[in-house]
Amino acid sequence: MHPLQNIIENRKKGKKTGIVSICSANRFVVEASMNRAKKENTYVLIEATANQVNQFGGYTGMKPEDFRNFIFEIADRLQFERERIILGGDHLGPLVWKDLPEELAMEYSHTLIHQFVSAGFTKIHLDTSMRLSTDDPDAMLETSVIAMRGALLCKTAEEAAIKAGTKPVYIIGSEVPIPGGSQDEEDTVSVTTTESFVNTVETYRNTFKSLGLDDAFNRVIGVVVQPGVEFGDDSIHAYNREKAAHLIYKKNDYPNVVFEGHSTDYQLPELMKQMNNDGIALLKVGPALTFYMREGLFALELIEKALIDKKDQSDFSNILDKTMVEKPDNWKKHYHGDEKQLKIKRKFSYSDRARYYIPDMNVNNAIQKLLSNLTNVSIPLTCLSQYMPMQYLKVRRGLLKNTPHDLLLDRIDNILDDYYYAIEPIPFNGGVR
């Protein structure tokens, strides 16, 4: 049995088992997530999206096999068992090629799915919800078309899984913004209707059956819904249990699936606990992880400015902003306002478009210099109290080493605190199949 299927079985017994899905290719985030999973004696679920990782490299420059190797290299360095790692593929389908005709877009999608499964990804989100260039631009895409395209991709995944010796689990549905977050501030977020949820499940069930994919459908463990959560530059749509009540109640008719919640970033821990208790057991988080990491780096830079001669400082925050200004493609569609507003958003937006610039050579070099500068000095507890008070208390109590690397990872772990408060983790039992 796949570890994620334990969520279904445990919840049938009345437990509130869930998992946090780490949607990030940032090495600090991955390391912090593995450390936390080991502490909790559970699995770590790390997902890559189709625009981030694909057969052409995606925006990370990594193919599925490269991403797997990147994750495994970090795990090996940390002595974190590979068997604890669940790799997921998110929004797998024609997302990246939606401007192409159906035949070509689906051809690329089949290759994408095949490479993900062949590389050992065992949680597969089948997302064929987007219109392609040959679809009617003025008509809503029929659920039957979405399901058929998804089922055909599933067939390719199953063929690849046989050779890989795996039994993937599947996620269907996609009532969420495209990867990367909403591009506009929204006054309200519409909760998925019960009719839409039921139509999605039943149409996929019948379509899978028509293609002889009954066994694969039995491994559909989750449905992506919009439970009413989202975030923008400086706003958060908080979970409202009453507004989602109709959807939560209807899920009782489908005990073999849970809901997958996207954009759960920045929800208060007590609300995430409500979400998990209500059946939203797959809690995906991405920008919040690097948002907290960026906060940690900014705090470390303030400590650096207090301790290091100006000529030797990293100048991290200025280099980051300069790089974002010179290469605006990853934020210009998301941030709006005058220059003063844009400057604030580039640094502090909940959307955290700054995360796309961390791998840039100049930015990465500045981070390394920052960490190196603070590694070569003793950080006074008084400075730590001023700029990283939560980490200060842990250092005082002997729970955390007073090194820049450990301080940074612990700042990321602060957001993981909220997620692990919300769920009952899956106990690690020795392997992923």
Could you characterize what this model shows?
- Helix content is 47%, strand content 11%.
- By secondary structure, the protein is an alpha/beta fold.
- The chain folds into two domains: 5-286 and 415-422, Aldolase class I (TIM Barrel), CATH 3.20.20; 291-411, Orthogonal Bundle (GI Alpha 1, domain 2-like), CATH 1.10.400.
- The strands form two sheets. An eight-stranded parallel β-barrel has the order 1-2-3-4-5-6-9-10, surrounded by nine helices.
- The longest helix is centred in the middle third of the chain and has 22 residues, at 143-164.
- The mean pLDDT is 96.
Corresponding CATH architecture of the largest domain:
Alpha-Beta Barrel
- Report strand %: 5-15%
* The CATH class of the largest domain: Alpha Beta
Count of β-strands: 10
C-alpha Rg (nearest Å): 22 Å
SSE layout and pairing:
Layout: H1 5-12, E1 19-22, H2 27-39, E2 44-49, H3 64-78, E3 85-92, H4 102-118, E4 123-126, H5 143-164, E5 169-172, H6 194-210, H7 214-217, E6 220-225, E7 230-231, E8 236-237, H8 245-251, E9 258-261, H9 269-277, E10 280-285, H10 287-307, H11 316-326, H12 339-348, H13 361-375, H14 381-387, H15 389-396, H16 404-422
Parallel strand pairs: 1-2, 1-10, 2-3, 3-4, 4-5, 5-6, 6-9, 9-10
Antiparallel strand pairs: 7-8
